[in-house]
Give the backbone structure.
Amino acid sequence: MNETDSSPARCTMHTKSEMDNFNPEVLMFPITSLPYILNSRPDLQQCFMLDFEVRPGWIVYNPNVVTVLSCNEMFRPVYKLNRIWNPNKQVFKIKCNDDLDDLKDMLAKPIVFCTTRRQECEAMINGFDTDFVLLLDPRDPQIATQIQNIVDRIDERLNSGGKFCLKITFSDLLDRLTLDEFKDLVYWLNSELSITNHCRPNQLLQLNLWTFWCAMLPVFLMASLPYRFVRKIYCHDQEIRFRVRFKLEFCPETVLVLHFYSFDRPIPGRYYTNGKLFVERDCCPTELSYLVCREAQDDLSCIEKSKSNSVE
């Protein structure tokens, strides 16, 4: 008769904060600090050519050596982009294995996201935008593993012959960076992209705001409910949250650029298209502490809170 081990099993439990420490580190910085970052990253210097003035198109990049996944018009490609990527919609259209091979090639290069932090006033009639860059290194084994998992899911869906739409998002991680007193006023925009062989879901018809639908009950019954039913049968929708830790860096000698607007909410990052709606203002980089929480407690709230409710 075999003896069983009567000693209690050892189980190591980790808090959410401790688990986050296992996630790969991703560099995050204000867009105006890009020259400063490139000075310390010679491997990226061949990817970009920068203008001296911060204006739409001042960041010229070579899509053959770097993948910029952003609709922000501060970025301008020097060559034509791959046909599978639509930057305006932030959508990859993958319909066959050749498209998937192109996607693999793009995700094997340094990956740049540009997300916009939008802060509104309490009356929601004006506010300002600030652009931040996220820099992912696919050579990092943990990031490479997450990318490979995404590729495997796409390959599986293509082989099944069904419609699919994968949404890749950083939104939950970015929300953690918002100071507690600004939680109701700050939104992180352009923080996701979609990979599909069909189309993205209709955000309005899939809006889960039931007070709105109670007021619009006929529209819900005749449009939203049938759309949800057909979409669920016809297309596989899945959200994938990238698991990383942001390491915030900035150049202490470089100004921050805030893009203010009034009444009309511009499309974030569209500085050519909606240029007349923005008023730019330079500010001291020390004000970054009012925009982004650099430290977090286990409950994801900030250790050091801002003493001001707005950027003067």
